Amino acid sequence: MRYAQVYILFLVSLGMAGCETTPKVDNPVLGPPPPRLESALKQQKLRHAEIASRTNDRQNILEGDFEDSGNPFETPVITASTTSTDSTVEETDDFLTDSTVVAMVNGTPLFVSDVIGIYDFQLKQAEQRMPPEEYKKLRRALVKRDLKGHIERQLLIHEMKSTLKKEQLEQLQQVLANAFEEERIPELQKGLGVSSPQELEEKLNQQGRSLYHEKELFMKQQSAIQFMQVKAKAANDYSREEVLARYKANIKEYEVPSKVRWQRVRITYAKQGGKDKAVGLLDEVIHKLQAGDDFGELAKKYSDGTRAEKNGQWGWTRRGSLAEPEIETALFELPIGQTSQVFETATSFQIVKVNDRKEAGHIPFADVQGKLEQSMITEARMKATTDILEELHAKAIIETMFDLDEEDAESTNPAVQ
Predict the structure, then answer these.
(1) Long-range Cβ contacts of 236-242 (<8 Å, 24+ apart)
(2) Model-wide pTM > 0.70
(3) Is 169 exposed, middle or buried (0-12, 13-18, 19+ CB in 10 A)?
(4) What percent of the chain has pLDDT over 70?
(5) Sequence-separated (6 or more) residues with CB below 8 Å from residue 359
(6) Which residue has the higher pLDDT, 328 or 209?
(7) 259-268, strands of its sheet edge to edge
(8) Three-state secondary structure along the chain?
(9) 127-162 b/e with 16+ CB inside 10 Å = b?
(10) Does residue 35 contact residue 88 with C-beta atoms inside 8 Å?
(11) What is the pLDDT of residue 225?
(12) Distances, alpha carbon 24 to alpha carbons 31, 156, 169, 387, in Å
């Protein structure tokens, strides 16, 4: 989609200057929606009944292995949190059919099939193994969970159609159609293990899908994505000074505590048959160290610590991570390469040696500059995206079947993914 993205950026840059025709809406309908969609919404439902009757075939299934733990169709997904009766619509209400209108966005209806049509194949499987009431709850929970993201995508599409000229929209649709043929179809073929569009159609049909509806979903998603990238203007790069200022402002995040690499010989009383016998073995180790024997070899031979087989070596250990304060103090104070005195604990004798040490400090700016700049770019884009969506919500007329407060429904945000 890289060339399509470049094209839409160029396309919209031409159109933005002289074709801002977004209608202004007085007294937008905001806040909690009514418990039932009456009047205009009910009329829209009747008006679009004929169209809705065809939405039963909408089976745009997301690719993925639904046997994994993320499967939203396993029975455990129906929990108190997802089926709470605090919803604006009681869970015992009429079944949500594919043609049920669940929202009106600036006069455009969103049907149940628009929101959960991508799960149609899996929902059919779930229907076979779930009690009817649980299946109704599952459909309602999925609609409620995903509706906000679909509303956001519809807002973007509405804004795009209001902003771009007819010929620009037609050119964009052609670019995306070409992208579907050249990029998306090969991806689908590879994912489903087929080698031709004909085989792909057959495979999709077996799953209750079709190329037609795969294309429909692709066009809607990509239109919203591309338009959002144009509208949500944010910095694509930052100067070294700007990144350095962010680094200094958050310097605590880059603190590095002191740490040490070391070796240990540990002689445990219990494993030697008592403290007196452990003293005898300890004397033998001390004499060999004084004679110049290698510390690691002695640790491998005499130590009963967990790292004995690795010559008693420990990797980088941060201050504050050891249970014995006296030993830790020695590790951070002894000269590198020096062996400690004998430490007598409640359960063992220990001798340690410092191999290397790094004092406390900070991760150098040069080591984090690139990653930090990228995080600043991502942060700016996310803020710009949020600002655009808030702006579109503020001037939109939206009626929904559910209360879509943040605490009630988490947006999957397909508009900007």
Answers:
(1) 236/377, 237/373, 237/377, 238/373, 238/376, 238/377, 240/369, 242/376
(2) no
(3) middle
(4) 74
(5) 258
(6) 328
(7) 313-318, 259-268, 348-358, 343-344
(8) CHHHHHHHHHHHHHHHCCCCCCCCCCCCCCCCCCCCCCHHHHHHHHHCHHHHCCHHHCCCCCCCCCCCCCCCCCHHHCCCCCCCCCCCCCCCCCCCCCCCEEEEECCEEEEHHHHHHHHHHHHHHHHHHCCHHHHHHHHHHHHHHHHHHHHHHHHHHHHHHHHCCHHHHHHHHHHHHHHHHHHHHHHHHHHHCCCCHHHHHHHHHHCCCCHHHHHHHHHHHHHHHHHHHHHCCCCCCCCHHHHHHHHHHCHHHHEECCEEEEEEEEEECHHHCCHHHHHHHHHHHHHHHHCCCCHHHHHHHHCCCCCHHHCCEEEEEECCCCCCHHHHHHHCCCCCCCECCCEECCCEEEEEEEEEEECCEECCHHHHHHHHHHHHHHHHHHHHHHHHHHHHHHCCCEEECCCCCCCCCCCCCCCCC
(9) eeebeeeebbbbbbbbbbbbbbbbbbbbbbbbbbee
(10) yes
(11) 86
(12) 19, 15, 21, 18
Tokens of 119: 């799960």
Distance in angstroms (rounded) separating the CA atoms of residues 68 and 70: 5
Work out the burial of residue 281: count CB atoms within 10 Å of its CB; fewer than 13 is exposed, 13-18 middle, 19 or more buried. middle
Give residue-wise pLDDT tens across range 369-394. 999 999 999 999 899 889 999 999 99
Q: What number of residues does the chain have? A: 417
